[in-house]
Design goal:
By secondary structure, the chain is an alpha/beta fold. It contains 4 helices and 6 strands. It has a single domain, classed as P-loop containing nucleotide triphosphate hydrolases (Rossmann fold, 3-Layer(aba) Sandwich), CATH 3.40.50.300. Helix 1 packs across helix 2. It starts with 10 loop residues before the first helix and ends in a 5-residue tail after the last strand. One of its GO terms (molecular function) is ATP binding.
Length: 148
């Protein structure tokens, strides 16, 4: 796994770091992307996809309305899920959540707090927040299974 998350990255640094992390991800992997609206979760998801090898990065957009998008990559699929609009476990079940988590894919989950009680112990959590001193920068916090 790529180490050394930038402390307060600008967009270019965030994208470069995400690409390095994506290239190092094992299969399968579940990445929980936490943070407020507009903080850069989808930007980071796109950077992770670039590192994983998704050829059509223009297709990597926020799945807020579709809920689930799948992208093909040389080492297997990447599934990008946005749980923001989900309100119940029944909606999570209807999404096929258990099957998604059991797949051999890389699973990128925006708004994972909607399903915290279902996430496995080996999820990698990346939390993004706005830097209080510079709104163009983000603060990253990464929690990997070995660092919990």
């Amino acid at each position: 796994m790529a180490r050394g998350a930038p402390r307060s990255p600008d967009r270019d640094s965030l994208e470069a770091w995400g690409k390095a992390v994506g290239a190092a991800l094992p299969r399968p992997a579940i990445i929980a992307l936490e943070g407020d609206l507009g903080v850069g979760k989808t930007t980071l998801a796109k950077a992770l996809c670039a590192g994983i090898g998704v050829p059509n990065l223009a297709a990597v957009t926020s799945p807020t309305f579709s809920l689930v998008q799948q992208y093909e990559a040389p080492r297997g699929p990447v599934v990008h899920v946005d749980l923001y609009r989900l309100k119940s476990d029944a909606e999570l079940d209807a999404l096929g959540w258990d099957e998604l988590m059991a797949s051999a894919a890389v699973l990128l989950v925006e708004w994972p707090e909607r399903a915290l009680h279902t996430l496995p112990h080996d999820v990698i959590t990346i939390t993004l927040s706005h830097d209080a001193t510079d709104p163009m920068r983000r603060v990253l916090r990464v929690v990997s299974p070995t660092r919990r």
